[in-house]
Structures are given as structure tokens and as C-alpha cells.
Amino acid sequence: MTQPENWPGNPGSGGPPPADPTASPPAYGEPYPYPPATPPPAAPSPGEHLGQQPAPGQPYYPPAGPAAPYGPSGYAQYGYGSQYPGYATPMPHNTLAIAAIVASVLGVFSLCAYGVGGIIGAVGAVLGHVAKRQINERGENGAGLAKAAIIIGWITTAIAVLSLVVIIVIGVYVATTDGGGGAGDSGSYDALAALTG
């Protein structure tokens, strides 16, 4: 890597000579020998053409623009108790959405109980609708939980209603048909025969 001609320390650049690498630092309490200060080059006069390149060996200074007023900068000002950038406090999850998904999943597990799964699933779906509305109003997290609760709750309710209808139809069919049993038959055998074929 080559250094430009006007780099300080280059021979003939007019800058200070490089420090002696074999010199030892000053003893404790002695002042450090700084190189003599050189004044900065003079700024171009107002009538001088600013578009031309500086003379060889002279540093280039870009023209100064208008001074910026002391005002708000592009950086955020932080005071006592403020948040750091990029670390926003997370929004809380909607509690009703969590309750809705719990109720909907309980409805799935209670489908084996005659009709109870449908009631619990419907409660979960309704809670999911209310939670979704609250999330839209308040800007909370949990929209996915509310949507899942609505879907699972209504599917659970539909399955429970269909299974209840099938149970009622089979019960009515068995009660109204004569299975060929005698007068003393209780009818439980006929229902078993109807289910098994």
C-alpha cells in the first residue's frame, strides 16, 4: 500500500518527521515530547475558484456549506426511563384468546361425552370471536390463537351436533321398528342387533 505524497511523515511532505522507533518513553513525571504544532493551511479566499485541485503537496479541503443550526439531530434523545432503540416492550397476549383456545381444545377431548364437546367447543368459538375483536381494538398479540380457537371450536361443535343427530336417529329407528322380538323383550337386544347389522 502506498501513501500519498502529502502524507505526514513522508520525506519532503512538509509534515513532522516520523517518531524514532528506538526512543524510549519519558520517565514518570517528565512531559511527553510532542512534535511542534503546524498551523492548518489557510482557507481559500472568497474570490478563489473552488473547483480547482490544490497545488501538489497541499491537502484538499472541501468547500464549507451553510452552517447547520443547533437543533434536533437525526439521532433520538434518551432521557431517564426511556427505552433503547430496537427494544420495544412486547405487547401482551390477549387473555381471552388463551381461554378460547383452551376451551376449544377441551371441546375436542370431550367429544366422547354425549353433546358436552359441542357445548364446550361452541363456548371456545364464541370466546375466540370476542378475543379477535378485542385484539383488533387494543392491538394485542394473540390473533392466531383466537383464529385457531374459532376454527377448532366450530368444527368440534359441528362434529358434536352431527354425532348427536346420528345417535337420535338410531334411537328413534330402533324404538319404532319391530325387531321380531317377543312381548317380553325389553328392546335392548333389538338395538344391539340394529347396530351390528
TrEMBL record:
Residues 1-63 are annotated as: Disordered. It holds the Pfam family DUF4190. The chain crosses the membrane at residues 96-127, 148-175. Residues 96-162 form the DUF4190 domain. Keywords: Membrane, Transmembrane, Transmembrane helix. Residues 14-24, 32-44 have a biased composition (Pro residues). Residues 45-55 have a biased composition (Low complexity). This is DUF4190 domain-containing protein. It comes from Pilimelia terevasa.
